[in-house]
Structure formats: C-alpha cells, structure tokens
Amino acid sequence: MSFLQSIRRTCSKRTSWVWARSYSAANVTPPSSEGSKNPAASSTTSQSAPLSISSCAPDTVLKGVNYLKGQAPVVARPDEEYPPWLWNVLKPRVYEDDGPGGRKERMERRKANRQAIKDRNFMQTQ
pTM for the whole thing? Predict the structure, then answer.
C-alpha cells in the first residue's frame, strides 16, 4: 500500500460514519417471524413499526432543498412514494467479468489510472 493510499484510508474512515449513519436503515432487514423459536419475540416484531429505508421520517421539512423564493417548503414523503431505483443510487456498480480486455478490466484500469493521476498531482503540491 502506498503512502497516499494510507492517508486517504484514514481520511475516509473519519467521514464514513456520516454515510453509515444516514443510510444505515437501508442495510437492515426486518426480522422474520417465520421459524422463530420464541413466540413472544415474534408477537413483538409484528406489532412494531416497519423499518424505514430513508434517513428521515415522513413530513420532515428538508431545509436547503428549496432554493426558489416564494415556494412552499419541501417535505419528505413516505418511502412508498419514492421510485425503487432511488435506494440503489449510492451502491457501486458491479461489472461482470467478461474475460481479458472486457468491460470490467477496462474499468479497473481506468480507476487505477485516475488514482495514479491524483497521487501524482497530490505529490506535486507538496
């Protein structure tokens, strides 16, 4: 691992809690009541509220989203009203391995090239 990668890794760890905190509900799956060995536990999960995918509750005023004068404030909607593709926007793309010279190999090479350029530019500023 290069010196620059270790610096970036420590910096990314410092700010990663923000993303993990705001999108943590997207990775949580509700517990299933089927096959539960404890009947008391299954009754409590069925009575609890469903897990929310978004980071804010419905009818929350979203500050900073409305930038036009004289417009009504923007309010968050329930999760069901948003399109399903919205919850997958932040997931990284996964390319299938289609052999040498394929799309996956080209994307990895481009990513490595961009990183090398960033490292070179960073070292020139030091």
Answer: 0.40
